[in-house]
Design goal:
about 140 residues; 4 helices; Double Stranded RNA Binding Domain; elongated
Length: about 140
């Protein structure tokens, strides 16, 4: 089931999901049922905007291979349908995180009063510490 918002629209044809056998303990059930999901999403061939594609491809996410394909394995639930829904929601969350515009930082300077206050506090602290010297009798 594709997720859609105002900015992000994913088509079901852009995502390939295959059912695979889940790893780990589970007894007889895990050995005979393919309940885990492998999700493959080709970022360069997708309908996402170029800026989002570039942000995704330049990220250090280990799930994105050199060809630009996002590979995600979901095996949280014992149900195949639930794992598919989880895979869609994780894909949507990942794309939504990279679709936000990054605010540029504006360089600011501290105000003169703040600088003077800090220097005065340093001076007071210095006087206090220097008065803690050895007492001569």
């Amino acid at each position: 089931m594709p997720n859609m918002t105002q900015e992000i629209e994913l088509r079901e044809s852009e995502v390939k999901m295959t059912a695979i056998r889940a790893q780990g303990a589970g007894g007889q059930h895990v050995n005979k049922v393919s309940s885990a999901v492998h999700l493959r999403f080709d970022i360069p061939a997708s309908s996402l905007s170029e800026s989002v594609k570039n942000r995704l491809l330049s990220s250090e996410d280990s799930r994105i291979n050199k060809a630009g394909v996002l590979v995600m394995k979901v095996q949280d639930s014992r149900s195949l349908e639930m794992n598919k829904m989880l895979a869609w929601s994780r894909l949507y969350e990942l794309i939504a995180a990279f679709s936000k515009d990054i605010k540029k930082r504006r360089a600011t300077r501290p105000k003169r009063s703040a600088i003077e206050k800090r220097l005065n506090q340093k001076k007071q602290r210095s006087i206090l510490k220097s008065s803690r010297g050895i007492v001569e009798s």
